[in-house]
Amino acid sequence: MKIVITGAHGKVGRAATQALLDAGHEVLAVDLTRPGFERKPEGSAAYQMADLTDAGQAYAVVRGADVVVHVAAIPEPTGNPPHVVFQTNLMSTFNVLEAAVRFGVKRFVNISSETVPGFFFPERPFLPDYAPVDEEHPVHPQDPYALSKTFGEQLMNAAVERSDISVISLRPSWVQNEGNYEQNLGPQVRDASVLSPNLWSYIDVYDLADAIVLAAESDLPGHEVFYIASPDNVGGHDFAAVLEKYYGDKIELRPLDRVDASGISSAKAQRVLGWTPKRSWRDYLDSEGHAL
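Structure (tokenized):
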């Protein structure tokens, strides 16, 4: 298939682009970064620079695609003014999706976020209702990033109501690659009291890329939402024990499928999408959180 991937030069975009190429697809990589002019290696993706907040540029890159994988976004709310985060993320999503609908694209893969429920960057902090968190958890977004991703999922719902497009929204946990496991996750491996809103969850970028390929190739109808998180938690802790130790009875504990379960459940993705995570923090870090 001809697949357009936006945000292709970011951490997730690079891994997903390569995974789509490895799966045999023709890929047009789209990003804001300027193109180089060296000869491209055989089998690499074509590249086009585009500002997707501009509708005309979005239409130009989407035309002729069979599938669109929309990764491009400002990835969290703290590094830019709130209106910039919200406007950039929501308008780029709207423009790319609108182009996909108008050009009859068959499938749209929307990279949403684990932050959609809202307990990551709220101005009035709150905890999840239960853990592991799944797709049925209520959403109460407050910050501009989570709001943009929540409204993005609503745009997906509207698209399948008004056209023949099929959509999969993936909500990745905190994405890691070989270059940042130690910096990001090392402290939690060493000490479970280093808390994070996602309850010790994470996802390897290459496992996420595998999920993106499955979503691009899927024939699931309508709009399906999937959390994508590693099945184990950072540090391999007894999840029930650390949840009780650090949160008491403030978060309801739901049944676990393993002792060292993640705080976010990807059971639906494994069951419905056929996704099988293959990588763990243990492949990169020792028991003290240091790089192997």
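The radius of gyration is 19 Å. Residues 2-178+204-232+265-279 form a domain with the Rossmann fold fold (CATH 3.40.50.720).
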